[in-house]
Amino acid sequence: MRAALARHWPEYLMEAAGLGLFMVSACAFAILFFHPGSPAASLLPGGPLLQRALMGVAMALTACGLIYSPWGKRSGAHFNPAVTLTFLRLGKVAAWDAVFYVVAQSVGGVSGMLLVSAMAHELVADPSVHYVVTVPGVFGVVVAFIAETAIAFVLMSVVLLVSNTASLARFTGLCAGMLVATYITLEAPLSGMSMNPARTFASALPANTWQAFWVYLTAPLAGMLLASEVYVRGTRRRVICAKLQHEGQQRCIFRCGYMRAS
User: Fold this and answer.
1) Is there a contact between 123 and 159 (Cβ–Cβ < 8 Å)?
2) How far apart are alpha carbons 220 and 76 in whole angstroms?
3) How far is 5 from 1, CA to CA, in rounded Å?
């Protein structure tokens, strides 16, 4: 434990900062597109679908920016306990690194939300934004669980396929971003579109909204673990590294096939 912390603490902080910035961005754009006092929200002609589409594009660009940033290239840009634990299951992340990643992601997400709450409490607490919480939609908990599992399964399947294909690997972040945009636009009414236990926890804590919280702890991990099993058993291809965007100039703390090949 101490050795992992002493060697890899910069990556842990980068993971914390990454999800923290993601939450700040989510709150800022939710206020811009959904708060009734926002000039942008009042001018949008297309109703909720257009609002979600714009939110999806904004969060996709945020995700891509973080993934392709120097910090994202170094930490691997997981920003999500379900991603980290899936790569742990695949043997690409050491156990203590996984523990510290999950802790860092959770602390980072909460820190980002608390920062926004401190700076713009009335805006982010407004029912139209409500700390960007993720809760089941009108079809209920069962549909939310199935939807969360499905979108997590597709995301991890795409990440594994693209990142482990040499000619496509550099597009992993873009593919992930496009899925985020699509999910926020089309799937959000079903589950709120989380895919990320730390992201849901970060919103639930200041909002004190724990409705079906277990869905967002279990479904993303179940979907991603299932995707990893299907990929490994179905394609018989090895997983090279736990990074979404592997940059040779950045150090890699994972059990990295790129490092062994070099």
Assistant:
1) no
2) 19
3) 6
Contact present, 95 and 88 (Cβ < 8 Å):
yes
Taking the C-alpha atoms of residue 212 and residue 200, their distance in angstroms, rounded to an integer, is: 11
For residues 59 and 230, give the distance between their C-alpha atoms in angstroms, rounded to a whole number.
28
Element (H, E) at 108: helix 95-125
Residue 74 half-sphere exposure toward CB, CA atoms < 13 A: 17
- Residues 209 and 130 sit within 8 Å (Cβ to Cβ): yes
Computed over every residue of the chain, the mean pLDDT equals: 95
For residue 248, give the amino acid letter: G
Q: What is the reported pLDDT for 260?
A: 59
Angstrom distances, CA of residue 53 to CA of 28, 70, 91, 202, 214: 15, 28, 36, 23, 27
Contact of 116 with 28, CB cutoff 8 Å: yes
Read off the pLDDT band of 248 (50, 70, 90).
Answer: confident
Domain 2-261 has CATH 1.20.1080.10: yes
Q: Give Cα separations from 252 to 105, 156, 161, 194, 238 (angstroms).
A: 18, 20, 20, 27, 18
* Spatial contact of 156 and 83, defined as CB atoms under 8 Å apart: yes
Residue 180 is classified by DSSP as H
- Please state the domain extents for the chain: 2-261
- The Cα 111–Cα 105 span in angstroms is 10
Could you read off the pLDDT of 184-199 as tens digits, one per residue? 999 999 999 999 999 9
